[in-house]
Design a protein that fits this description.
Layout: H1 3-9, H2 11-24, H3 26-36, E1 40-45, H4 48-64, E2 68-72, H5 73-78, E3 90-96, H6 102-113, E4 118-123, H7 129-133, E5 136-139, H8 152-168, H9 179-198, E6 205-210, H10 215-229, E7 232-236, E8 253-258, H11 264-276, E9 280-286, E10 295-299, H12 305-326, H13 350-353
Helix pairs in contact: 2-8, 2-9, 3-8, 4-8, 4-10, 8-12, 9-12, 10-12
Bound molecules: 1-O-phosphono-beta-D-fructopyranose.
The site of 1-O-phosphono-beta-D-fructopyranose (F1P) has 15 residues, from helix 4.
Length: 355
């Protein structure tokens, strides 16, 4: 089997290691936060780790009540005035699997030059350039992967972000240690239906809907099926989908909804309307399966919303993987992509003096 497949199915084992590591750091994280007391938080990454930054920011704002934003590292690098309101009061959480992506490293430099308060890094590589320039480093070493596309690296770095937010918010961080068992049960339960869905040759347009904490995860699902299987895919907040994008929905469409408990009724309504327009529905929902959805994956609802997030990734990764192999593509070697985007820093020097 491919590296990608092995990395997807190995996630529960890695989650056990990562969850134990972040639980052990709970007191240290609380103390570091209490010392820092930032007025706002910026989370930044690229591609998958930009989407992870969106989840991390939502988690941190919900747990701290402090304004938190998730942005592409390139936005902080090129337009710092649009994201840096109070550098001296800002905590930057820089997220990078490799810890070597040029935009992310230059964004940290730009943040420091603007007088940024502190940099916390989330990465899979403790010896990386990003780790070297951060004030505090959170490492998911168990999640290092051979594949270009992120799967277990994403979910393990997500676990770190969850643990950090939960520690600051005085949540029971140990709940994260329930995920490995739940993740394995989910892999066992959904592999077959996701393979069947991935092999559907009548579907060629993919929409991923997520709101609140799920929006960043929906984006990651969109990117997985795009990067691996070369499929047209888009992401929207649930209710935003009605405001124009649904014009594209038809019988060739899959609409994958990552439902929440808080907005369940409103989100389910959108999926029911899209089914009426001919779409095939994949509903990933906390608690009971969604009646009427062609494919429904129920997640354990005994975990709170902040803790269950990695479980949404399992069906989305499997769907992308099986569509890729059904199209005789190699998930380990996605077209046009490399594992890390390296750029010439000299090309950004003009931004050093400006502003
Ligand atoms: C980020 C990145 C993404 C891309 C893919 C591979 O690298 O290159 O741009 O979407 O997921 O990872 P990193 O900064 O997280 O190492």
């Amino acid at each position: 089997m491919s590296h990608t497949y092995n990395e997807i199915i190995s996630q529960p084992a890695g989650w056990a290691e990562t969850a134990a590591a972040i639980v052990a750091q709970t007191a240290a994280v609380r103390q570091a936060w209490d010392t820092l007391r930032p007025t706002n938080i910026l989370c930044a990454g690229c591609g998958s780790t930009y989407y992870l930054s969106a989840v991390a920011a939502a988690l941190l704002q919900s747990e701290t009540g402090i304004p938190a934003r998730g942005i592409p590292a390139s936005e902080l690098l090129l337009f710092p005035e649009l994201s840096l309101a109070d550098p001296a009061g800002t905590l930057l959480v820089a997220i990078s699997r490799s810890g070597t992506t040029t935009e992310t490293l230059l964004a940290v430099e730009r943040f420091r030059r603007a007088g940024g308060r502190a940099v916390w890094a989330i990465t899979c590589y403790p010896e990386s350039a990003l780790a070297a320039v951060a004030d505090r480093v959170f490492v998911a070493a168990a999640a290092q992967e051979t594949s270009v596309v992120q799967t277990r690296s994403f979910s393990n770095m997500l676990l770190l972000a969850q643990g950090i937010a939960a520690a600051i918010g005085d949540e029971d961080v140990r709940l994260l240690q329930r995920l490995p068992e739940m993740g394995q049960a989910l892999l066992d339960r959904v592999t077959e239906p996701m393979e069947a869905l991935g092999r559907r040759t009548d579907l060629d347009r993919f929409f991923f809907l997520g709101s609140g904490l799920q929006y960043g995860i929906a984006n990651e699902g969109m990117l997985k099926i795009k990067e691996m299987s070369l499929s047209h895919s888009e992401t929207y907040h649930f209710l935003e989908f009605r405001h124009g994008p649904k014009s594209l929905v038809g019988k060739e469409s899959l609409v994958a909804g990552l439902l929440s408990q808080e907005a369940y009724a409103s989100e389910r309504q959108v999926l029911e309307e899209m089914a009426q327009l001919g779409a095939t529905i994949l509903a990933i929902t906390p608690g009971e399966s969604l009646d009427g959805a062609a494919y429904s994956v129920s997640l354990p609802d005994i975990l709170p919303a902040w803790a269950r997030l990695p479980l949404y990734l399992i069906p989305l990764q499997l769907l992308a993987y099986y569509r890729t192999v059904s199209r005789n593509l190699d998930p380990d070697n996605p077209r046009n992509l490399g594992a890390v985007v390296f750029l010439d820093p000299a090309g950004f020097r003009q931004h050093d003096t400006a502003r």
